[in-house]
Amino acid sequence: GQNIDQPTEMTATEGAIVQINCTYQTSGFNGLFWYQQHAGEAPTFLSYNVLDGLEEKGRFSSFLSRSKGYSYLLLKELQMKDSASYLCAVMDSNYQLIWGAGTKLIIKP
Amino acid sequence: DGGITQSPKYLFRKEGQNVTLSCEQNLNHDAMYWYRQDPGQGLRLIYYSQIVNDFQKGDIAEGYSVSREKKESFPLTVTSAQKNPTAFYLCASRSGGESDTQYFGPGTRLTVL
Predict the structure, then answer these.
(1) In terms of C-beta density within 10 A (0-12 exposed, 13-18 middle, 19 or more buried), how is residue B96 classed?
(2) Contact A107, A13 (CB under 8 A)
(3) Best interface-test mutation with B: which of A2, A34, A99 has the largest number of B CBs within 10 A?
(4) Which tens digits make up the pLDDT trace of B37-93?
(5) Element (H, E) at B65
(6) Cis (ω within 30 of 0) for the bond into A43?
């Protein structure tokens, strides 16, 4: 079967760095996506990785290792507004997104 | 402004009633999707459409129906056959091209009383 695993909840301190991991087993791979979702709102697109390596976009970076079925989202200089759920999703061989349950990130002052 | 709109944001219905959730996009995207989100679970695909006048069942299509008569519109009907319809419903459209990203509307929270 297809499976995306990510931690249920993480806590970090304002100004610090946090890494959210995602491991996946899917039928085929056509890219991995990270989305941010604030409570009660829709997911918003953060990043897309299809090749191995690190993609940096401001305070957010995303890493992919296809051979290990592994990705992480790195958030630097954490701000209180970064408190949200972070969703990992993999596009499978049918170009459908398979979603993880999300990681709720709590930022403390 | 280009984007995806869903209405209404909150919807209450009595058990046994059908209800239609609207989704409109002006991004000129061909593909559109309906997901359901429940607490503690990943998004689950209900239906998707790659092109006008064509749509496919997703993983949890039972109790739902859709139509795609126009490129811009992909309404979802939650029928009385859906056993547990209370959820957050999200519509998305896909950009295609190099990044092939799905973008979401604001969602409709449906509560069945």
Answers:
(1) middle
(2) yes
(3) A99
(4) 998 888 999 999 999 999 999 999 999 999 999 999 999 999 988 889 999 999 999
(5) strand B64-66
(6) no
